[in-house]
Design brief:
The chain is of the alpha/beta class and 138 residues long. It contains 3 helices and 11 strands, in the order βαβββββαβαββββ.
């Protein structure tokens, strides 16, 4: 079970929810299985012709360094899709690379169909294993 703070859910809705699809951010937390931190990737590159979210890696790396100083662990990503609330092959590949680098499972949240809630969360391993994970808002 994953636990997500209501502040994070509201921040996701306020930031990702106000844009068309393919916007996103990163998720973190101070406790195991508890997401209490969200950063909206405002500088992300949006390739509308390819309908693809490309994270602003330099900006996100700076945020992750700041999180490290504050004992916030990186859990994963969240982004929106235009229609389905499912992971794309590109999502799985990207998360797998990160999982291999960090040697841990990565959380990937997806908002689909006009940024509709609830969010779906998935765990992706370094072996490309994907499983949907239930979550509760606290």
């Amino acid at each position: 079970m994953l636990y997500v703070s209501s502040d994070v859910i509201q921040a996701i809705d306020r930031n990702i929810g106000r844009f068309a699809a393919e916007r996103g951010g990163i998720l973190g937390g101070r406790k195991t299985n508890e997401i209490d931190t969200f950063y909206f990737d405002e500088l992300a590159i949006l390739l509308s012709n390819n309908n693809k979210y490309i994270p602003s890696v330099n900006d996100l790396n700076a945020v992750l360094l700041d999180w490290q100083k504050k004992d916030v662990e990186f859990y994963g990503f969240i982004h929106s899709h235009e229609s389905r609330q499912e992971l794309s092959p590109t999502d799985i590949e990207y998360a797998t690379v990160i999982a291999c680098l960090l040697e841990k499972e990565i959380v990937m949240g997806i908002i689909g169909g006009n940024n509709s809630f609830p969010v779906k969360f998935f765990l992706i391993s370094k072996t490309k294993s994907v499983k949907e994970i239930a979550y509760e808002v606290f």
